[in-house]
Amino acid sequence: MLDRALTGPVRVIGTGLLGTSVALACRQRGLDVLLSDTAREHVRTASGLGAGRSDDGTPPQLVVVAVPPDLLGATIVAALTETDAVVTDVGSIKSRPLAEVRADVPAEALARYVGSHPMAGSERSGPLAASAALFEGRPWAITAHESASPDAVALVRELVDLCGAVPFEFGPEEHDRAVARVSHLPHLMSALTAGRLAGAPAGHLALSGQGCVT
């Protein structure tokens, strides 16, 4: 049985805004945090901010994958294969990574994976934009699949609580439908609207008010 108490170490893969913010929140609670990123300068920056130490191969209790969406599946598979840890991620899509993981790991390893997604962010990116308080009071979806171990789900829920977020439970597909409705579609429409303004005469833009996209 997995220990329900989150005692660490916590390995954070990807030291951008979300990953470094998770790491800072964990360090604030006294947990040992191992930092990993393909961009070594991001690890140095995050470490300098007090988010943890460079990953030295110490076996983790929990792995948090905070990489771009197209890298989620492969990175989660690697974490499940290389460690005996519970693995979660903070990606904005859940169904596709889960399908990739199902195809590439045995049932025992799959039981240790529990997807999650904090609905928090900033207009800035990178480790310098990170904050231990980024998730406080924000919704954080826990998207356990049907084969997930209850102990693994409990450990991920403890991470959410530690970060000060408000947990919500969704199935992976339900999560993707909800996020498409409340986040992805509005973002796309905003980008299309902004694109329409790119070639507008300066006189037209002068009429924009505080509620307009500029």
Note the main attributes of this structure.
214 residues, alpha/beta, Rossmann fold, three-stranded mixed sheet, 8 helices, 42% helix, globular
Structure description:
This protein has 214 residues and is an alpha/beta fold. The chain has one domain (10-172): Rossmann fold (3-Layer(aba) Sandwich), CATH 3.40.50. It contains 8 helices and 8 strands. Helix 3 (72-82) crosses helix 4. The longest helix has 26 residues, at 172-197. The N and C termini lie far apart (54 Å).
**Biggest β-sheet strands, sense, barrel:** 5 strands, parallel
Q: CATH homologous superfamily - what is it?
A: NAD(P)-binding Rossmann-like Domain
- The number of distinct structural domains comes to 1
Overall pLDDT confidence: 88
Number of DSSP helices?
8
Strand order, main sheet: write it out.
3-2-1-4-5
CATH topology title? Rossmann fold
**CATH C-level class:** Alpha Beta
Query: What overall geometry do the principal axes of the alpha carbons give?
Result: globular
Number-wise, the strands total 8
Strand content: 5-15%
Instruction: Provide the succession of SSEs.
Output: EHEHEEHEHHEEHEHH
Q: In whole angstroms, how far apart are the ends?
A: 54 Å
Topology:
Layout: E1 10-13, H1 17-28, E2 33-36, H2 40-48, E3 53-54, E4 62-65, H3 72-82, E5 86-89, H4 95-104, H5 107-110, E6 115-118, E7 139-143, H6 150-162, E8 166-169, H7 172-197, H8 202-205
Parallel strand pairs: 1-2, 1-4, 2-3, 4-5, 7-8
Antiparallel strand pairs: 6-7
A few lines on this structure:
With 214 residues, the protein is of the alpha/beta class. It has a single domain (10-172), classed as NAD(P)-binding Rossmann-like Domain (Rossmann fold), CATH 3.40.50.720. Helices cover 42% and strands 14% of the residues.
